[in-house]
Amino acid sequence: MAGRGRREDQRFLTGRGRYVDDIRCDGALVLKLLRSPIAHGRIASIGTSVASSVPGVVAIVTARDIREARLGTLPTAWSPPGRNGSVMAAPPRPLLADELVRHVGEPVAAVIAETETAALLALDLIEVEYQPLPAVTAGASALEPGAPVLHPAEAPGNLCLDFELGDRSGCRRAMGSARHVIELEIASNRLAVCPLEPRAALAEPDPQTGGVTLHATTQIPHSIRSLLAVVLRLPDTLVRVISPDVGGGFGGKMALYAEDVLAAWLAIRQGRPVRWTSTRSEAFLSDTQARDHTTGARLGLDQEGRILALEVETVANVGAYLSLAAPAIPTWYYAPLLTGAYRVPVAHAGVRLAFTNTQAVDAYRGAGRPEATYVIERLMDEAAHRLGVGPDEIRRRNLLRPQDYPVATALGLSIDCGDHPGMLARALAVADWAGFPARRAHALSRGRHRGIGLSTYVEIAGGSPSHVLASQGARGGSYEAARVHVLPSGGVVLAVGTHNHGQSHETVLTRLLADRLGIDPASIRFVQGDTDTAPIGRGTFASRSLALAGSAIHGAAERIVVKMRAIAAELIEAGPDDIVLANGHLLVRGTDRGIAFAEVARAAYRLPARLLGQIAPGLDETAFVEPPDWTYPGGCHVCEVEVDPSTGEVELIAVTAVDDVGTVIDHTVVEGQIHGGLAQGIGQALLEEVVHDPETGQLLSGSFLDYALPRACDLVAFSTQTHPVPTARNPLGVKGCAEAGTVGVPPAVINAIIDALRPLGVTDIQMPATPFRVWQAIRAAAQSETM
Asked: Can you state the angle between helices 369-387 and 740-757, rounded to 10 degrees?
């Protein structure tokens, strides 16, 4: 399907996209939230009388009003089992802070007013008296004795969950026999999601039913409908969620937020529409964040450098409360991936989730897999250095080979296929690994230090069966759905339960259906994002849309095709098995005899006499797909950098990515997805970090003045190639491509920087490798040599 333009581009590039903030709604009230200025404290009093007198203010609500309305609290969707049968602590997350605030930016009061000006003025006049309490912002610090406790009743000691996978005793035995043991302390920096479109909500009440329609910037409209109905104490038949065009999500738009619930509840309460739109500064305080791990890792190897054992202990900072998927990210989406693409005989992973006085974390592009890949790939590079072999060679000795599959890993994954040695060889060739020494020497002659680094990875995508997720503590299924409706005119409506926020679903999914039906994609209308018109689906995350929604389209289309063949065969007097669909016709195989697609569609709604009672009228099929297991994309990324030792500035020279995303349906879309992921992964490696003051908990990186996103001038032209090994776990053979870049490239960047700086005595550096951090590492290494 490569070579054809995207259907979405015309309206997006001409400014005709329709986002939540574009929806005009007469008489809509403006919702604004008063947010806590402190990270931890007791609310002694809230005074709203002066603020309520501002002209145009309609209502001010606090936690007391929420309690009186008997609304629920914000839910989490996972409760993974803990070590030795322990149970996860899940403190309630109130819509508005009740008695205590636990992070800077937590909502304390809500104002609705006729105008934004009136709402903002009222916010300034609300009088809140806080009694500050000590704060803790680092996960490891929160678990230390004597640390400030956020939820004394539910989580004493701030421990949310103690989780483990693998064989601890077997791992330690194997580690004891290892000739080489590599140990590293590794941090995965906290990130802000920063989609191009900030979050927004517009709620419209239905006075006839008492229900509500919520227009929301969400990746998961059907799940949001179900969750919103629970929190509002309404039947889900009275709740409709519409998610129109969404300007980027990356995981940050797959949670139910307080603003969504408050807008919906206040719209019902006031009988008027209510609108909330985030500012960029507000997003740094209110949107979920991501990553934030500290890890101690040990890798045991034999004399030849072959892996014997892997042992990992991680503290994952989940913030002050649990967001929707937060418990799953550092457990099931992280720990099983720690063995990477390697043959690891025995492994053990322990993960402790810690509450801190920071914003809640949740999914962000890659969600657990980048953190796991970073751990094992840093260990592999350090092992290569200790053993005196090349980083490419240490990987060759340990990578899973095509003949090893299917393989059950030491941490519980069941990987069906892959070719990691092939991708390694291809990436090294494209990156001209062999020619690097000459480039390094030339750079040194200019006073710059050049390094090269690589990373191999395997990740999970798509989903595993719902019953498996249930055993892991998930409170929802893993299915996806699609509806194919052929109209009497021959036009087709394709409705999907998943949702697009930049992945080209409208283009790829309609082309997929068009190819199955042998028609022009232009004759297909694409429907998504409306819980009243789209079939129930889980939404967009974990690179699942093509594998699952595409498979559902395939299934529904196959049933349509069977029916149309039977009708065409009757009309043109041929056997159904001899009919093929192509170029808008149903043709007898090997001939030009046939009938137009539209004519068969029309006949389906007025069946020939001989078909009455044999098949039902109409052409309308809905298919649900349940994944049999995860798919496993993988790849190899190579990065080349130059470092200015006088300033610490890192310049990207080249980035090569060779990825196995399974069958490639649209090369242009895959390339775009890989490019976007690489940019975000490089952002984590070099630039991005959410920083809090460790004493006060204040957010120090609350705007783009202090939080650096990668720009075009920070990047290079990427060399990307695919190396497909199709999976048999779905009928399309696809594995998923959206998160590959963020998973594979961060360790390649950091390995390259360390390779550049080893001659200066630098052996480790944490992300993000900012110029100041690199300069500090160079200076510290120089000082240690002189001591």
From this structure: 30
